[in-house]
Amino acid sequence: MAFVIVTTIIVIGTVLWNFITPWWFTPLASNWGALDQTIIISLWVTGVAFVLVSGFILYCVVKFRYKEGHKSEYEPENTKLEVILTAITTVGVIILLAPGLIAWNDYVNLPEDAMEVEGVGQQWVWTYRFPGEDGVYGNTNGRLFSSKNTFGLDPNDPNSQDDILIRSNHLHLPIDEPVVFQLRSKDVLHDFYIPQFRAKMDLVPGQQTNLWFTPTVLGTYEVACAEYCGTGHFAMRGIITVDTMNDFQSWLTEQPTFFDTMNEGTKGQGKQIAQTLGCVACHSDNGKNGIGPTWKNSFGSQRMMTSGETVIVDAEYIKESIVNPNEKTAQGYAPVMPAYKMSDDELDAIVEYIETLSE
Ligand SMILES: [Cu+2]
């Protein structure tokens, strides 16, 4: 009897929980209401099946419990029952699958006149590229990646020059305009996910994947990486602000083109370089230690190494830590930082930036 009571409580509690849970969808801010409906239909179908199957088990436990003199009957075939059960299951599976297939068809068919943005993922930052005035993306090639050319754009391709580069994790989009994201990864698998837009797509190294949506509510939304991509996965976040068309246009005109970025000096650009290369995912500028030590007030301080030696955080140590990070590891941190190739000017710019963060 205890089994019947406990199971009944679990079944009723599970069903009730789905109605009163505080962890429901965040308010929808895109065109993808169909995806929510698909999930809700699935919840209803599986919920009804759950209640019916659980109810049947409880009924059997009570009805056929052990009694003196009761004997079970042997019935190996019951064609009528099999036909009914097969029919019900078939209808259930169709209701489960059909709405998803309809929504998926829209999801993978990209609108033709949509705005285009490229989303680039790397451990552990997001950056973006617009095709610029000519509307055509310049060619990219993994061999062309450098600390200066972080998008790997072909400098000899005339289409590259006007490409607009967003070298921070903060992207703006205009409201009510369909936008197609071309997604690519510079290193490992990532997943571009904005919960309020319900939009989600894997980034696969060596491939381009696509995703589209139409933002429908003004506001600021968080981009999260939804595919475990290494130690700093949790820090791989970004922001998308949905603006009016006017605000979006004025933001876009302030962003540099590829031509601009290739011709800008490095002096005073330490913060920009740190952002573009993703240093900021692990090294904060606000005193909070992350995967790596914070940069705030670090310049000139003493730091204990795992080897037991103490070093002064000066220009030489910082540069060595960037170029050859596993030479010395600070105590309390894992030796997970990849080595970065940078020009002397860029190293100086970063040291200078870290220095400005210290009192
Ligand atoms: Cu990631």
Task: Please give a structural write-up.
There is one protein chain. The N and C termini lie far apart (71 Å). β1 and β2 form a beta hairpin. α2 packs antiparallel against α3. The protein is an alpha+beta fold and 359 residues long. Strands 3-2-1-5-8 form a five-stranded mixed sheet. A five-stranded mixed sheet has the order 4-10-9-6-7. It has a two-stranded antiparallel sheet with strand order 11-12. It has helices at residues 2-20, 33-63, 79-108, 245-253, 258-263, 270-277, 315-323, 344-356, and strands spanning 115-122, 125-130, 164-166, 170-174, 179-185, 190-194, 199-203, 209-213, 219-225, 237-243, 302-304, 310-312. It is extended, with a radius of gyration of 28 Å. It has three domains: 2-62 and 82-108, no CATH class; 115-262, Sandwich (Immunoglobulin-like), CATH 2.60.40.420; 265-356, Cytochrome c-like domain (Cytochrome Bc1 Complex, Chain D, domain 2, Orthogonal Bundle), CATH 1.10.760. Helices cover 35% and strands 18% of the residues. The structure holds copper (II) ion.
Keyword list:
single chain, 359 residues, alpha+beta, Immunoglobulin-like, Cytochrome Bc1 Complex, Chain D, domain 2, 3 domains, five-stranded mixed sheet, 35% helix, extended, binds copper (II) ion
